[in-house]
Amino acid sequence: MNSLTPNSLHARDIAAVLHPQTHARRHLQDGPTIMTHGQGVFIHDDAGNAFLDAGAGLWCASLGYANERLARTAYEAMRTLGYYQLFRHASHPAAIELSEKLLSIAPVPMSKVLLQCSGSEANDTALKLVWYHWNARGQPQRRKVISRLGSYHGSTCATISLTGKPDYHAGFGLPFEGFRYVDCPNHYRAAEPGESEEAFSARMAAQLEALILAEGPETVAAFWADPVQGGAGGLPPPRGYFERVQEVLRRHGVLFVADEVICGFGRTGAMWGCETYAITPDILCCAKALSAAMQPISAVLINEEIFQSLLTQSDRLGAFIHGFTYAGHPVCSAVALETLRIYEEMDLIGHVREVEPVFLRELGALQDHPMIGHFNGCGLIGGMEMVRDKDTRADWPAEAKLGARLDEAARRNGLILRIVGNRIAFSPPLIITAAEIQDLAGRLRRSLDEVHAELVAL
Ligand SMILES: Cc1ncc(COP(=O)(O)O)c(C=O)c1O
After folding, report:
1. Any idea what DSSP says for residue 427?
2. Are residues 239 and 293 in the same domain?
3. What's 260's DSSP letter?
4. Among 153, 159, 274, 332, which residue has the most ligand 1 atoms within 8 Å of its CB, making it the best to mutate?
5. Average pLDDT of the residues in 388-395
6. DSSP track, 349-362
């Protein structure tokens, strides 16, 4: 079935659905891939194809695509208390238990939890809290926020401004004023010849410090970073990066907001990316694997200092005036709580650590392929650099349409890839087995071989 069949789902999709992150005009012709069901790490379309999903949807389907226990949890929650809100002192057991649980597993002592509905909402709320905090502290001029080129932090007006991707700003008249960006710490692409990872990290931190000094430290509110940079294509930080960066932030009293939206809950082989990279955030945002992506829920964890500022503001202003109708939704909260129980019972982090060497070895072995310049990762997240020439690290020209070709070849081989520019990002469901990782690498090698043959024949 395709878009030419009248009244097919394909035709109806084209007629009715506007797709995010999709070429609107091309969709009119190409139509959708319609997914019908999933099991484990495989997702199935309506044409009967099964795809191994190397990206867990959008870095999120940690337990794969179906889960009976979470389905029952949602069902029971809907039968008992299908909705209530947390406004004006109201609460419910699932929100309380989930908040306690998050505080108990936080990477650094945290004081309170604000439950939200998405990663974007979490980062957007955290940004408001940063500004609220500095206002409470009598430093309202601390408004500017620094993030990294290549980072993605969400799609609201403010979080897309935090996002260091000019192509995501284009056409919207964004970013807002007051957002600044430092370079993406991609050692493979941006290091000087012979520069060690440590020296590169020191240079990146020096660039951050120079920016803070140029802006005026008294105007800089916060630095925003995801421990492994998802938007830059699953890019782990170079050695020493966050140590150096945090020294700079401490020197200038700038807050660190950790975006754990993709790294949280085991992705890096620890509960948090902050643990993996010794980050001590003032605010932590998490989402996605919090509910195994089966319900839209996120959370902002704040430390005691930020909470004290909120108390001050409530005294001054009458209340903490912020909130979303569905924030802390009882069904989502119940599913998130059950998800965290499942993770503990199955020792998900232990599993990630166990398969990590297979993940690094199998994907690392693809560096022998003529198109792959570099791979690195940690836990079950990582990225691969595609190059035309391994010695010069030159890229394929845009006319080669590398991304589209590889995406197509991968799908022919039953594999869904996340391609970000010249990088392939990997974040498979956290339940992936060693054999499935080998399967993934085999499908990828076949896809790369096919694309390479096409490109050299051009
Ligand atoms: C690091 C990071 N932060 C924030 C977001 C935004 O999350 P959401 O799409 O749930 O709004 C994403 C989404 O991919 C992300 O990768």
Report:
1. -
2. yes
3. -
4. 153
5. 96
6. HHHHHHHHHHHHHH
- What CATH number corresponds to the domain at position 114? 3.40.640.10
Residue 225 CA to residue 259 CA, distance in Å, equals 6
Does ligand 1 have an atom closer than 6 angstroms to the CB of 153?
yes
Q: What's the CA gap between 139 and 197, in Å, rounded? A: 36
Q: What is the CATH number of the domain that holds 373?
A: 3.90.1150.10
| Co-location of 325 and 422 in the same domain | no
Residue nearest to atom 8 of ligand 1 (CA): 119
Same-domain pairing of 131 and 245: yes
Instruction: State percent of the chain over pLDDT 90.
Output: 98
**Helix (H/G/I), strand (E/B), else coil: 386:** strand
Expressed as residue numbers, the domain containing 277 is 69-345
**259 Cα to the center of ligand 1, angstroms:** 9
Tokens of 408: 């197509």
What's the rounded mean pLDDT across residues 252-271? 98
On whether both 214 and 310 belong to a single domain, the answer is: yes
Question: Of 309, 330, 345, which residue constitutes the final position of a domain?
Answer: 345
The number of CA neighbours under 13 Å toward the Cβ of 363 is 28
Instruction: Determine the distance separating the centroid of ligand 1 and the alpha carbon of 4, expressed in angstroms.
Output: 35
How many angstroms separate the alpha carbon of residue 363 from the centre of ligand 1?
A: 25
- Is residue 177 within 8 A of residue 169, CB to CB? The reply is no
CA 120 to ligand 1 center in whole angstroms: 6
Is the residue at 3 inside a domain?
A: no
Return mean pLDDT, the chain: 97
Cβ burial of 284 (10 Å; 0-12, 13-18, 19+) is: buried
User: Is residue 129 predicted with pLDDT exceeding 60?
Assistant: yes
The domain boundary residue, chosen from 302, 327, 345: 345
pLDDT-derived band at 1 (thresholds 50, 70, 90) equals very low
CA distances from 25 to 66, 120, 213, 405 (A): 33, 26, 45, 19
0.85 exceeded by pTM: yes
User: What stretches of 60-156 show up as alpha helix (H) in DSSP?
Assistant: 68-81, 93-105, 119-136
Domain contains 177 = yes
Count up the domains in the chain and report the number: 2
Instruction: Render pLDDT for 115-126 as a digit per residue (tens, 0 to 9).
Output: 999 999 999 999
Give the pLDDT confidence of 430-450 residue by residue, as tens digits: 999 999 999 999 999 999 999
